[in-house]
Amino acid sequence: MLSVFRRFIRSKFGAFAALIFLGIIAAAFIMGDITSGKFGSSLGGGETAAKAGGSRLTMTELQDRVQRVFENARRSNPGLQIGDFLAQGGAAQVYDQLVASMTLKEYASDQKVHISKRLVDAQIAQIPAFQDAAGNFSQENFRQLLLRERITEQALRDDISREILERQMLAPLGLGVKLTDSMVLPYASLLLEARQGTIALVPATAFKDIADPTDAQLGDFYRKNAARYTIPEQRRIRYAVIDAERFAQAAQPTDAEIAGYYNQNKAAYAAKESRSFEQLILPTEAGAKAIADQVKGGKSLAGAAQSAGLSVSELKDQSREALASAASAAVANAGFAAKQGELVGPLRGSLGWVLLRVTTVSTTPARALAAVRDEIVTTLRAQKEKRLLNDFTGKIEDQIANGGSFEEVVKDNGLKLETTPFLVSSGKQVEDVAYQVPADVKPLLAPVFGMSQDDDAQLVPIVADKRYALTAPGDIQAAAPPPLAKVKPLVAMQYKLAQGNEKAKALAEQIRAKVAKGMKLDEAVAAAGVALPKPQVVGGRRADIMRDGQRPPAEVAMLFTMATNSVKTLPAGQDRGYFVVQLNGIKRGDAGSDKALVNQVRDQLSEVVGQEYGQQFERAVEKELGVRRNANAVAGVQRALANANSGGQ
């Protein structure tokens, strides 16, 4: 369940980058200055979680950051529960990373290391969410996304500066790591090791004698397993759409505006001439003249060039300005003065001596105002709609900033209020599996599920510069299991499955004990007294079953942790039964002759060793600066989040 989170924070080198750039924009959900929305700040804001030099991490900052990491992980995995997140060490991971970040920042300050504003600007410009359709940085997208995610520009810049600083200080520590063959070979040989085993399954469904549960048994089972049935938090989304079409009438340009635009852009509507050329560039004037003489003697430019071991290039649909920029003004003037088919040159160009032959001449006549009126109207109307839309949304933002409520702003501006049914963060509806979230609502899911009920409404772009929505959460249902009556048949089935799983566990242990004493696994299964699937023989090389990073099933992976002829039991998971796993044999691998594999493993181990160097450096700096940690910080944050999140989300 925490695989998404583990990928975010798998290594120290990747940890900070992950924390900085998670979500829809860099640091969108985990910036330290974002106040806790849903959970609140139940810890003392002034209490110190850690201190390094002149910097300190407060308990509130730690709690907010842990919350944001959890919320972002849950966006990718809506079934993620806060209890699972904390039990897997999520809070401790974030705490260690924040302390390391603060420590390295203090160390860099002592060493006079500084990250320039230009470097941060370059990093921001590379973030895709801040770019327009052409891939260029958009100030409007930048402003809208920061507003939507409740992040100040300075907070974003601070975190990006820290990420760059950490990357610059830690990455060089892993450079130049060189591991010897004697160190790498054992690990490479492990990949070539082959194992074979026999696996038997004792399924929970094999036991047919399990009685239906009483109401008391069912209720007790449901209470103990409430997390299994918990429905994630559900919210109604309130929103009002603002579309540029709202301003279609007001954006209609006047005759004066149309004429003014035409006069300002007369050059675009004037008569134009474009030409295509064959071009040959030579390094010397003498060489160019020799080719020109051959052309004047009747050869084609391409033929004359070919006889000299050269080839012409084609210039398609060139304007005079484009040709002048590519060659020179003199070349362009001569090229546009010649007739079609004529040879021009040799003339001095920017890259050498140029010969041109005019192949085609295309003339576009001037276009009168009447001919381009519709085109100008479309352009001006789009410009005015965009300006009016920006003015209108700016007014709405000002109203919100001045304390206007969602309802007041909607009413004052004549907007249509719409409300969705209860939705989970993925947009699904629990009561109606066929429900399809409207297109206008999809962009609102992440921002609204990141807000608390008393947060100000947000203006969220649906289609940038064309369509926006003013949105806020409506009713919120905390994550909780549904009433037992609604899921009683499912719970009854899973109760019986759990009872069957206990019997499967006992029977699997009996089979294991018999096999450990010398009985063959298939014989022990046949003598179990219950109809069981036939044991299967499985095996292969470690490298093959884990190819491309894919993890094999747990019962197969277990073979690579066992001693020869040993036998173990393993739960199948989710009350499905138990496996009995017997390792039959091991064939050792030897990668001594596989240099490619050895070098591949060397590269992987070098990266791991480099990361270890970085971690050792962090610990040394922490010791040097006398960093003080609050031993109760993580436990305190875990209690606060668990208590404030008692619904189980």
From TrEMBL:
Keywords: Cell membrane, Chaperone, Isomerase, Membrane, Rotamase, Transmembrane, Transmembrane helix. It is a single-pass type II membrane protein. Belongs to the PpiD chaperone family. Residues 232-360 form the PpiC domain. It comes from Sphingobium fuliginis (strain ATCC 27551). It comes from the Bacteria. InterPro entries: PPIase_PpiC (IPR000297), PpiD_chaperone (IPR052029), Trigger_fact/SurA_dom_sf (IPR027304). The keyword Cytoplasm does not apply. It is found in: Cell membrane. This is Rotamase.
